[in-house]
Write a structure and sequence with these properties.
Layout (H helix, E strand, L loop, with lengths): L16 E6 L3 E5 L10 H7 L3 E7 L3 E8 L2 E4 L3 E2 L7 E7 L13 E11 L2 E13 L5
Antiparallel strand pairs: 1-2, 1-3, 3-4, 4-5, 4-6, 7-8, 8-9
């Protein structure tokens, strides 16, 4: 069994949304909706080496973890830029067929932050922002 090269408890995940890719499923939800007593499915999946990658995100930042060989690696957080940054909010309908575990969430919300080069706009970064229960338009 491998160990993450970071302390999962130090990530300070409280009210974050998550999308976790397991060997046999994709789970999504919000951490404050999970049972906080005892062992959670997520901590058990990490101990059992079943997590392939995970995204934890909110209105401030996105954390991304991915398997690299025998370890889970935490990449540098992607912060949402300040209010003066030009951004576009996009909503994507989630395909209900790719996950086995039921979830009320139907829409993924992302923010695309724009930059300019030679007077042409381009997406400098895309950061996950939230999940919504309604359908994407």
């Amino acid at each position: 069994m491998s160990k993450p090269i970071f302390d999962f408890a130090e990530l300070e995940l409280r009210d974050d949304y998550y999308i976790v890719h397991l060997l046999d499923d994709v789970r999504m939800g919000r951490l404050n909706e999970e049972e906080e007593s005892g062992d959670t499915w997520l901590s058990q999946a990490i101990r059992d080496d079943r997590v392939i990658e995970a995204h934890f995100f909110n209105a401030q930042r996105e954390l991304y973890l991915a398997r690299d060989g025998e370890q889970l690696v935490l990449y540098a957080p992607m912060e949402h830029s300040g209010l003066d940054s030009e951004s576009v909010e996009r909503k994507y309908k989630l395909d209900r067929h790719f996950k086995k575990t039921a979830s009320p969430y139907k829409t993924l919300v992302v923010r695309e932050y724009l930059d300019y080069k030679d007077n042409l706009a381009f997406v400098a970064k895309t950061v996950l922002y939230g999940l919504e229960e309604g359908m994407a338009e």
